[in-house]
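Target protein
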Amino acid sequence: MGRKTLKVTLVQHTAEPERLAALAGRRCYSGLDNANLVREAGDRDPAKFISKVVGMGHVTIIEHASFTFAVEGVSRSLLAQITRHRLASFSVQSQRYVGETASRNADGVFDYILPPRITALGSEKTAEFAWQMAQIQEWYDGWVRDLGGGRDAFEDARFVLPNAAETKFMLTMNARELLHFFTLRCCDRAQWEIQALADEMLSLVKGVAPTFFTKAGPACLRGPCPEGDLNCGRMKEVRERYRAVAD
C-alpha cells in the first residue's frame, strides 16, 4: 500500500467495433432493407470504408462503438480533470463508503500518488513527502475517531485527504469521444498524469480498432499545433513518438 502506480485495463468494448461502424455508415448511403444490409456488409472489409467516410468528416458512425476501462493508481487530482470530459460515463470508488483508516492499509498509510518531479528530487524529498502523507493519515484517523467512526465519519473526515490520494474508477467512452480525449490529453501540454493515462488507453484501443485510431493522438500529428505561443516546443519529437506507436 502507500505509493501506487497507474494501471489501466480495457475490460469491455463493443463487439467488432469497426464492422459495426461500417454497417452504420452504409445505412446512410444504401437503399437496402436492414436485413439485406447486414448480410451484404458481413462480406466486406470495413477498414477501407471507414477510412474514406471518416476522412470526409462523417465521424458519427464511430460513435456506435464504446470502450470501457478500469483505472487505478491515479490521484483525485486526475479524477477532477477527466470528469470534465462529459460525454463519458464514470463509476468512482466512494470516499464515503470506503474509508481510508490506517488499519485498512498494510503499511498504515492511505494509498497515494507520488509525482515524478518530487521523486527526481531524491530520496530525502521522497521521504519527506511520505512523512507528510503519514501525518495526514493521523489527522484523518483522528477525525474518524472524533466523529464516532463508520460511514458517517468517513463522509467528513475525508475533507483532510489530499489531491494525491489514490482513487479507482471505471469509465466508458465512445470512439469519437476517445479521439477528442486523445487530442487534448496526449498533448505534451497536458498534465503528466492524465497524459500517461491517455497514452495507455490509446495503446489498448488501437489493438481492438486500429482503423478508428490510426491518427489518434495530439493535434500536432494532423496539422499545426493549436496552442500557438503556448506550444511545447517539442512538436517534432512528439510527432515521431506517436507515429512510432502507430507503426
